[in-house]
Write a structure and sequence with these properties.
With 329 residues, the chain is α/β, with parallel strands linked by helices. It has 13 helices and ten strands. Strands 1, 2, 3, 4, 5, 6, 7, 8, 9 and 10 form a ten-stranded mixed sheet that branches. Helix 8 links the parallel strand 5 and strand 6. It starts with 7 loop residues before the first helix and ends in a 5-residue tail after the last helix.
């Protein structure tokens, strides 16, 4: 009498079944997608990232013929969202819309529960948000060079506000302070809302923040004056504001990149399907125009391009942090 394990043919069938069962959770590209895709956003509902994510989700749902549900998972500078997605099954059905800073900046300042280089796989770069350096009514200088001169003439008196420690504005502060040899006071806020209120009230001289439609309105109304902008080129709506590169500060020409990532280990074929769907959505005229009107620049392109952006940004951030000695603050 034979058993399933003593029969060679039965044993082979058992092995084949076991292998098939093991790989079943990871759908092939030919099957993908078959069910709802969840896209978590590391910012509260109603903000620019949330609005953009929902517009993209609508377009992608039509393209892929499955629902794309947007969920908000704010907190800890985006690290909560990245941590949750990194633990999800790598099958393409759980994605994150996030700034790159939880991967390229935050880990240099605080402990995170994931390894940045191994946590997620890039799907596509969505947009970049230029970082603007502005003067408030408390600053008499009206341009970047005037600001530098004023800071040099009164060491220790110039106050520069950021939306928090370990932000793009923080390392921009460090880079300019180091390169120009300035002694300034850093004022880190816990978020951009109170920072903007105090800026409009002239509670400090200088601050850095991401561009937005509201910010542009305040600049045009004369309540704030833009000194420089971190962008590849001058942007629509602030065409008279020079980039940091134009002003001889290329290392301070920083911007916030945003994109979509999946858990590490997601099959390349699935990443490619998602990439093409989101890239097509980004080329929709309404979405592209809404980004530009808010001062943000659409990205798009291949997943590999976004990977290179993340890697280069991380290297640049590390160099600035070490050079300016910011990590110890």
């Amino acid at each position: 009498m034979t058993t399933p394990f003593t029969s060679s043919r039965s044993f082979q069938r058992f092995i084949a079944f076991a292998i098939a069962a093991a790989i079943m959770p990871f759908a092939t590209a030919g099957d993908f997608p078959e069910k709802t895709i969840r896209l978590s956003v590391d910012y509260p509902a109603g903000g620019l990232s949330d609005v953009v994510a929902r517009k993209l989700a609508e377009k992608v749902a039509v393209t892929l013929k499955v629902p794309v549900v947007v969920e908000n998972r704010p907190g800890a500078g985006g690290t909560i969202n990245i941590a949750e997605v990194s633990r999800a099954r790598p099958d393409g059905y759980t994605l994150a819309f996030s700034a790159t800073s939880p991967l390229t900046l935050t880990p240099y300042f605080s402990k995170v529960s994931y390894t940045p280089e191994k946590a997620v796989t890039p799907v596509i770069g969505v947009m970049y948000s230029p970082v603007v350096l502005l003067g408030t009514q408390a600053l008499k200088a009206k341009d970047f060079n005037g600001f530098i001169d004023a800071a040099k003439q009164a060491p220790g008196s110039m106050r520069w506000a950021t939306s928090g420690m370990g932000t793009i504005g923080h390392i921009m502060f460090g880079q300019i302070s180091h390169d120009a040899g300035l002694d300034m006071n850093l004022i880190p806020y816990k978020g951009g809302s109170q920072q903007m209120n105090d800026a409009l009230g002239g509670q400090f001289e200088i601050f850095s923040t991401n561009v937005s439609a509201t910010l542009i309105e305040n600049i045009k109304a004369g309540k704030l004056h833009a000194l420089a902008i971190g962008a590849d080129e001058r942007i629509e709506g602030l065409s008279d504001v020079p980039t940091f590169t134009e002003l001889g500060q290329p290392k301070a020409n920083l911007k916030s990149n945003f994109g979509i990532v999946a858990p590490a280990g997601t099959p390349n074929e699935v990443i490619e399907i998602l990439n093409k769907a989101f890239d097509a959505a980004l080329h929709d005229p309404q979405i592209a125009e809404s980004l530009r009107q808010s001062g943000n620049i659409p990205s798009g392109g291949k997943a590999e391009q976004f990977q290179r952006v993340i890697e280069q940004e991380s290297r640049n951030n590390r160099a600035i942090i070490e050079q300016a000695g910011l990590a110890a603050q």
